Amino acid sequence: MKIAPFLASLLLSLSLLPSCQQTGTVNEEMILETLNCPRIAVTPHQPAWVSEQSDFHLLSAADLQKVRSLLKTADMRFVADKYYRDEEDGNRGDSSSELFYLYGDNAQCLGGRVINGQVYMDDLELEEPQRIELYTLLKPYLQKLPRDNAQ
User: Fold this and answer.
1) Sign of the CA dihedral running 38, 141, 9, 87
2) Rama region for 144: left / alpha / beta (φ>0; ψ in -120 to 50; rest)
3) Model pTM?
4) pLDDT by residue (tens digit) across 16-69?
5) How many whole angstroms separate alpha carbon 46 and alpha carbon 70?
6) Bridge-partner residues for 57, per DSSP?
7) Torsion over CA of 94, 97, 15 and 60, rounded to 10 degrees?
């Protein structure tokens, strides 16, 4: 799987669509559209246009399938507008600095954070066993992110 075509389609989409600049809770359609993307990458918690090619860590086909299975069963959460303007504030009442995105090749992203060995998705609600499983799945990708992001 090559990263160049992924980045090319991502950057083209970014020029046409303001990704990750929501003004309120994302909707279920956007989440499903992102989860159904042929390619999803783990990236730092920053816009794609300021990221380097080396910041995109494509999920393997097997890992992507497992991530989809976990996230498609999750319930949506309401996230107040203020957290989209300043996600560092901790939309779960946390102070985690271990933030990341799951970027789809549709230029949409799903924000996540690591808290105590579990992955909490910003717009989805998972039970503890699923949060731990998601962390286990994503840990090899998260470890590739710059130190000020998720580990």
Assistant:
1) positive
2) alpha
3) 0.73
4) 344 444 444 567 888 899 999 999 999 887 666 666 677 789 999 999 999 999
5) 24
6) 42
7) -100
